């Protein structure tokens, strides 16, 4: 796609929602990540969310 696998603000919200649902149901949340990183022109919108998102990627 044009996005090239980069993260957008909506991507972050989807991940956080999945984590919240997993936590509420005592389920593991496992990510296999192959990403183009944050969309650079929008990176200021990507990271300043709940938990600053970047902490989930190790």
From TrEMBL:
It holds the Pfam family Carboxyl_trans. One of its GO terms (biological process) is L-leucine catabolic process. GO terms for cellular component: methylcrotonoyl-CoA carboxylase complex. This is Propionyl-CoA carboxylase. PANTHER family: ACETYL, PROPIONYL, PYRUVATE, AND GLUTACONYL CARBOXYLASE-RELATED, METHYLCROTONOYL-COA CARBOXYLASE BETA CHAIN, MITOCHONDRIAL. Residues 1-58 form the CoA carboxyltransferase N-terminal domain. One of its GO terms (molecular function) is methylcrotonoyl-CoA carboxylase activity. PROSITE patterns: COA_CT_NTER. InterPro entries: AcCoA_carboxyl_beta (IPR034733), ClpP/crotonase-like_dom_sf (IPR029045), COA_CT_N (IPR011762), MCCB/AccD1-like (IPR045190). It comes from marine sediment metagenome.
């Amino acid at each position: 796609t044009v996005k090239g696998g980069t993260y957008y603000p909506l991507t972050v919200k989807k991940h956080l929602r999945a984590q919240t649902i997993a936590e509420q149901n005592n389920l593991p949340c496992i990510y296999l990540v192959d990403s183009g990183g944050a969309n650079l022109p929008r990176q200021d919108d990507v990271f300043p969310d709940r938990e600053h998102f970047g902490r989930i990627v190790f």
